[in-house]
Design goal:
The complex is a heterodimer. Chain A is mainly alpha-helical. Chain A has 2 domains: about 40 residues, no CATH class; about 160 residues, Up-down Bundle (Butyryl-CoA Dehydrogenase, subunit A, domain 3). Chain A has a 3-stranded antiparallel beta sheet. Chain A has a two-stranded antiparallel sheet with strand order 1-2. In chain A, helix 2 packs antiparallel against helix 3. The longest helix of chain A is centred in the middle third of the chain and has 30 residues. Chain A is elongated and about 70 Å long. The two termini of chain A are about 25 Å apart. Chain B has 2 domains: about 50 residues, no CATH class; about 160 residues. Chain B has a 3-stranded antiparallel beta sheet with strand order 6-5-7. In chain B, strands 1-2 form a two-stranded antiparallel sheet. In chain B, helix 1 runs antiparallel to helix 3 and helix 3 packs across helix 4. The longest helix of chain B is centred in the middle third of the chain and has 30 residues. In chain B, about 35% of the residues are buried. Classes of the chains: A mainly alpha, B alpha+beta. Chains A and B meet through strand 1, strand 2, strand 3, helix 3 and helix 4 of A and strand 1, strand 5, strand 6, helix 2 and helix 3 of B. The structure holds zinc ion (ZN) (2 copies).
């Protein structure tokens, strides 16, 4: 099925990544005649770029989880929370729906995103023909869900902006928040640079680096 | 590699053909019933949707969105009351808190995802749609503006901010009293209007109109 499909590429055409206009494949760098975006057969260096962004995100994932994202100073007592200890506090406070939400958005989704994108990059690099439709679905899922990880950053933003009551109570963002924000941004970029069409390209079609026009 | 940029030409009757953005499968465009969408048989991605609401409806949504955006930005968002002390916050004061503490990455993230890109989207759509509404030729640079909107839309995170605000308010519940300000209601309205505009506007239709007029 994969090899019989009538793709734009087989007919020597390229679709613009932005506006979808179908163009005849030229040589070298080119721009879309309709929207002006640079146009490629496949996103350039897709696997290398996505891979590099994933590695950077994985490295930052450690400080994001080990450093405090937020510290509360109340009546001279300071308490710093990491993402995980924040979830535990919510659980102890009996707010388990909220704990579940923060756990999914801040812990589960980033890990899944790193794993899924990492798997997709490897599967394309190894020219796997295994269930391309399901891999396409996985990609759409992480692409759609990834931005929701930002929810914790907004919680910290609001708390730090709101709770500025001097000695009574003050909330500050911690270094973990910056690292976590960077993880979310990097994984979003990683999803943008991954070209899902590579999943479907014929095996041995010479697309391992995202490909120049032949 | 000898040819110059801008050497590409669209295929004949490019409007009638499209390639799946996620697997490159080629399709001939068929008219759809209102509210229906075309889905790729190979990978399951949505190809295009049919939206029967006219330009004036989308434009009305964008303009109301712009008004709500103004209120959401400059009116008080939340007020915190503890021990007789009342602290009011706007979106901008939250960014100010980060800047004062030198957390510029967080400040930038909030500025971009909650202010710049949502504004760019609403103002840009208004700019592109208005000439269509008046039956005039395409606005100058409409293709560039619409391309920018395409790139910015995943980074516009109003709805995620709303979820974060709910979490923050619940977290503060046992510590202080939180009262929503005018901006909080404006925010909810803004999110609804933006989501509705996103639902009503089919980017491929706008691209075709830009092309035919330009
Ligand atoms: Zn284009
Ligand atoms: Zn497809």
């Amino acid at each position: 099925m994969v090899s019989n499909a009538l793709t734009a590429d087989r007919l020597g055409l390229m679709a613009c990544h932005v506006c979808g206009l179908l163009c005849r494949r030229g040589e070298g760098a080119a721009r879309c005649p309709r929207c002006g975006a640079s146009i490629h057969r496949r996103l350039p260096d897709s696997l290398a770029r996505t891979g590099a962004l994933l590695i950077a995100a994985t490295l930052l994932y450690l400080p994001a989880n080990m450093l405090p994202v937020m510290s509360v100073t109340s009546l001279g007592r300071e308490q710093a929370d990491t993402i995980l200890s924040g979830v535990v506090h919510l659980l102890h406070g009996g707010m388990w729906p909220l704990a579940l939400l923060v756990f999914v958005a801040s812990i589960l989704v980033p890990v899944l995103k790193l794993l899924v994108l990492g798997y997709l990059v490897l599967s394309v690099a190894r020219r796997s023909a295994w269930r391309p439709r399901d891999r396409s679905r996985l990609f759409r899922l992480v692409e759609a869900v990834g931005r929701w990880s930002m929810v914790d950053i907004f919680v910290v933003t609001l708390l730090a902006a709101l709770v500025q009551l001097g000695d009574l109570a003050t909330i500050q963002a911690g270094p973990g928040a910056t690292a976590f924000g960077a993880v979310v941004v990097l994984t979003m970029f990683a999803a943008h640079t991954f070209d899902p069409r590579l999943i479907w390209d014929e095996r041995g079609a010479g697309h391992d680096s995202g490909g120049d026009p032949r | 590699m000898a040819s110059s940029p801008n050497s590409l030409s669209p295929v004949d009757a490019a409007d009638e053909w499209l390639a799946c953005p996620q697997c490159d499968q080629l399709y001939r465009r068929v008219p759809l019933a209102s509210g229906k969408k075309a889905v790729c048989v190979r990978c399951g991605a949505v190809l295009y949707r049919c939206r029967k609401r006219g330009v004036e409806f989308a434009l009305a949504l964008c303009v109301s969105g712009l008004i709500l955006f103004g209120v959401a930005n400059f009116a008080p968002l939340l007020a915190l009351e503890k021990g007789g002390l009342i602290q009011e916050t706007t979106l901008w004061s939250g960014i100010g808190v980060f800047l004062v503490r030198g957390e510029w990455l967080l400040a930038l993230l909030v500025l971009v995802t909650l202010i710049l890109f949502p504004l760019l989207r609403l103002a840009g759509l208004t700019y592109v749609l208005y000439p269509f509404f008046r039956g005039r030729a395409t606005a100058a640079g409409a293709a560039r503006v619409f391309r920018l909107i395409h790139a910015a839309s995943p980074w516009s995170m109003l709805e995620i901010f709303l979820l974060g605000a709910l979490v923050a308010v619940v977290k503060l519940g046992d510590m202080a009293t939180v009262m929503p300000g005018i901006a909080a209601y404006a925010f909810v309205g803004l999110i609804l209007v933006s989501a509705w505009a996103e639902y009503v506007i089919e980017p491929r239709d706008i691209w075709r109109r830009i092309d035919n007029h330009g």
